[in-house]
């Protein structure tokens, strides 16, 4: 392997860096989110949870700024429209995953759902699965830009984790509706579980598109 | 240059215009069609390098074409070029990608038949060998370049954005090289028949000396440039979008293969080098840039299992190769008869 430095690449370097930073944001938000859910189950809407929720909001905001910057730079680069369109779509889909993390974390803060302790372990399992799903999406997307051959490996992980998260969600919903808690409470919990599971669904959609881009771009 | 001569030369200029409209589209079609390059940028690059190629590299193929038929009356040359130009124009109107090389050879043979000159079959065989070898060689080179450059890209581990930047830059260089080679190889088709009757003198600009032949080629190249600017944009859209859904990398390979093939068939220097090294060299004949492009696309297409090629368009192009020289022969033969008998113009001089 050898690396080359050429003046024709001077314009792409900054854009590459920004795209890399967006991938970093997914990994960052996923880790903070995991921490936040753990904390919420322990302390409910505490000051500490508030701090983490704010941190998630900040990451989401930084990702939005990055996305806009990337979009502007993509137009300035004068890339092939077809390729530019694909990259724009990818960046927007990555941003949707980040937004979903923020929405769920903020939902916990606003609605303060009471989650019976019997479901804690399974909820943490679900959170773990969706976070891993998002992280592998970031790895796959990074690989799309740098190493096509690895995209497939990460994509496979995303598909498997999404499938696992679906199973975990279904099991939890079944258990919740078999319990004696009030119907309104059941529905609130179901909505929260669906929102958490949506993170994995968004990651899966993003991977579907990514794999098409790879087929289109593989020289 | 008298106005009458300019009038007669106009058919050659028209042929050059047709060449600019059609053949340059093969080179920059994919780049402009995919909006990798702006049409104006492509047109400026193509014009500059086609002029350089024609003026500084056009002698060898012209010599071959002159051997096929030495058109010695300017009115005859006018009609030979006009017939070729008209056939290319009509074929282009039908949407087929045409070949100027075949059109001019068809016209020259018609002139030979009309004036009773024996066509030199060794030269004709040499030219036709070139036609056959051209797409085969292009296919071979495209496959070799595909493997070599793909390997190089993988070794470089470039970011996708850098890959695109590199391909885009490569396109500009390959396109420039290809238009140079096209000018060198195909100026014979445009101006070859006028060489024997050219009234120009040696032109000296500072340290540069231009032969009468080069002055003639310069005028032809200007006509090609006009063709590029006025008509090639439409053909580029057809070439860029309808032949095959090419990735920018493959489109780049196709242009590079075309450039190498055209250069191999027109460079006296390269031929001498190859022969010195004991490598069998190719005949220096005007070949069809269309054949080169189709050959390269077919080579890549076959390599990839033939799924990406639009066969119906490919066959329409092949049909164009056959009908163009036949159309040119027919038009030329009938027109020479009218020119001589109705307009009382000499279409040849007995030697």
What's a quick, concise take on this entry?
Chain A is mainly alpha-helical.
Task: Give a written overview of the molecule.
Chain A has helices at 10-43, 47-76, 81-111, 120-146, 148-178, 183-217. By secondary structure, chain A is mainly α. Chain A has a single domain, classed as Methane Monooxygenase Hydroxylase, Chain G, domain 1, CATH 1.20.58.220. In chain A, helix 1 (10-43) packs antiparallel against helix 2 (47-76), helix 1 (10-43) packs antiparallel against helix 4 and helix 5 runs antiparallel to helix 6 (183-217). The model of chain A has no long low-confidence stretch (mean pLDDT 88). Chain B has one domain. Chain B is globular, with a radius of gyration of 20 Å. Helices cover 76% and strands 2% of the residues of chain B. In chain B, helix 2 (39-57) packs antiparallel against helix 8 (212-242). The longest helix of chain B has 36 residues, at 121-156. A two-stranded antiparallel sheet of chain B has the order 1-2. The chains are: A mainly alpha (219), B mainly alpha (351). The interface between A and B is medium-sized, with 23 and 23 residues.
